[in-house]
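Appendix B. Chain record.
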Amino acid sequence: MIIQARSPFIVEVDEINQTASKVLLYIWNGYGSSPASPTYTLQKNIPSATNTKTTYNISPFLKEYLSHVSPASVTTPTTNNSNEWCQVQVRRYKIIGTTETLLDTTTYDVVDGFNLYTDGYNHDNGHALLTEGTYYYPLGESNIGSLLVRNDSGSASYVTVRWFNYVTNVMTQSTFSTKEWKDFPYVNTPNVSAGNRMTITKYATGGAIISSKEYHFRPINECFYTPVECDFINKLGGWQKTWFFKASNDSLSVENQGYNLLQANLVNYDVQEGQRKMFNTLGKKSIKVNTGYVSEEYNKVLQELMLSERILINGSPVVMNTKNTELFKNINTKLINYQLDFEFAYDYNTTVV
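Structure tokens predicted for this chain:
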């Protein structure tokens, strides 16, 4: 199972006659050995003799081990060994008096994703960290994006990724059966000018399909504007690349503080000296972008982008200033364009100390 660390994940201990409980968390990045000692030790007494249930939300502890610096830029399937995901081993104990008894040990993979309220409790969103749908990229672009895929069972299962060229329908594929996370390019290199359909299928050893996802990646020839590249961590916890194809505008705002100067000579003062001086002058850059005309399906991308906690615009970190927007419907609005505002997440003039 894959835990979505931005949603609560509850570990429950409720055993007959227990007076307390304990949960040990062993957290580490990669598929190497678990830590020799617990990363966190959590312990609670039971609320009362008639209410023995104890619960622990472990998600906040897991998020500390997830970081997203920049997305992978791959043209071939590549093993992902970054800190974009981690593992946690959960050991549950019941305590009766001073006696601790191990109940079970369970290991999970963890990503920086979240579930919607309507999805219900924290659940596994599948082996590929991108919502199914149709996505667009600028014609001639080589860094189109990549998708993080997991195979969890080693030799007990395998994953096959296939790309189908839209013009020739030629199919290429890549299969892996090792227990690992791998980055796969959205578009196979020979398909860049035409686009492709991408399928990701997980099989049991005997060939039965466990799960499958399908994506469509199509090029757009934007002749007038320079498309703006946007990378963000989506609701499934993986990097996702999207593009804003129409007009973009850069802005600079300045903040500072002022004080009144004491003149060097109150009688024969220098008129070029002035009476006020500014200090702590900081510049902040922002960018306003337009998606271009999109279908109603783009609403899914927009919602995940607005809820993201990590966004890059043209490779630079930003925060989104757009806090609300109408989710347009094609039946009401024939031509849908979204305008979004971002502020770069650093001062224009460096203040790093």
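Further analysis of this model is presented in Appendix C.
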